Input
Amino acid sequence: MPRHPDRLIERLAQPEAARLIAASGTAVVFAGSVEQHGGHLPLGTDAFAAQSIAERVAARLGTVAVSLGLVGVAHYHLAWPGTLSLSPGTLTSVFGDVCGGLAGAGARRIVSVNWHEGNSATLRLAADQAQVRHGVQVVMAETHVITHTLFPAEMEFTHAGSMETAAVLAFDPALVHLEQATPASDHSAGEAAHALFRRPDVYPVMRDFRHVAETGWYGRPELATAQRAEEIAEAVADHVARQVREIWDALGDPGAPGSPSAAGGSGPSGARGCPPEGRVSPRASTALPVKEGQ
Output
């Protein structure tokens, strides 16, 4: 099952889009980013990676894929001209407004597909607000984390290395130009610096990506191949769809009478639909970690 651009909502006629959303009660949204990835990958790498997975997930769930826009929260890449960035408030507003339209069409469940680490914190807050405002249930899929976790030996968690090259190859191989690669930063130094921002407990907040890679990127893009990239993208989409269904089974239908969403949505810790502060469900404790700062 390769890419499915036919699942993009803007490519569908209104009756077909309405049918898919109403029949599934679900919609997939995906966030982007326009930021530097050296000379060998496009500025839209993270947007294309998210779209590639979102299309595949939408096909597996029998629904539509909806873009939140190409640009995300990437201010720490602005030292490289051509990078664009939204304020977190802008992305939050777009997420909420799009979820509102989808909820009006019958989507009770939203799957948020993201590839860009800089979007992660904002999308979590946006999802919480959307649940409160629109009574939907949002499940987050951090597909860069999933890709590395499923294939740690092949998909290095660098910037513009093998994992992101594979992601673009799975979207459109014509966008990868290894022969145009600019000088890479030191691999070991990049990994060590990146690890500081990816600590799960005590960590700095990314301000300038030159703290990680002076030249803007590091990694081994030459390790990625188009055939393997397609296999990995399919495996990631399978993983997302499977995990989403498990979560739905555990939490139940958000539109059912008496459910937290039907009763008024989620809220702050201890409110309807939310566990008391400090308590995490056993299932949540096994989730893949979200890394910050790519």
